[in-house]
Design goal:
single chain; alpha+beta; 2 domains; 5-stranded antiparallel sheet; about 15% strand
Length: about 170
């Protein structure tokens, strides 16, 4: 690296580091200077700092190449056309996968079969029925076995586990 580029890098690094000392108002104004619009409401300070830092570095060192921009545009178009990003992706369990859950000191193992689940030597049509049988109350089976949804902090002995045999 040449001395001039070392000095440029040092100057840019200092400029980016100085963003941390700006007030929230000054940071929003810096965003407006680079993006010609104010940052979206409810965007936190860290994201605004990152956006401004990106623009500072882009100005000094160059931004994304045309090919990369085209690729990102194509990916965005594909995501918009073919994906529903508002819906969570559904987990697909393959036959033979084992779901293991420790509940009140007892380990429960469920094996995924072609037509449902096998637990304690019996066939079951749903994980929720198994979870209800284990706990005595209604549970979402996938949530009980740690496959979906928000999880509450539980005692380490009761943490769900998923093991797949492939």
């Amino acid at each position: 690296m040449s001395r001039a580029s070392d000095e440029t890098s040092a100057t840019i690094a200092a400029e980016v580091a100085a963003l941390a000392s700006l007030s929230h108002r000054e940071l929003r104004l810096a965003w407006r200077q680079y993006y010609k619009t104010y940052p979206p409401k409810f965007v936190n300070r860290t994201v605004i700092e990152l956006g401004v830092a990106w623009k500072i570095q882009e100005r000094a060192f160059g931004g994304l190449g045309a090919a990369t921009k085209r690729q990102l545009d194509a990916l965005a178009d594909e995501l918009e056309a073919k994906s529903d990003i508002t819906r969570p992706k559904q987990l697909e369990l393959r036959p033979g996968a084992r779901l293991i859950r420790d509940w009140h000191g007892e380990t429960h193992e469920v094996v995924v079969t072609e037509d449902g689940f096998r637990w304690q030597g019996e066939s079951w049509s749903s994980l929720s029925l198994i979870a209800k049988e284990i706990t005595g109350t209604h549970w979402s089976g996938p949530r009980f076995f740690g496959l979906s949804g928000p999880t509450k902090k539980s005692h380490p002995k009761q943490a769900p586990e998923c093991v797949t045999d492939e």
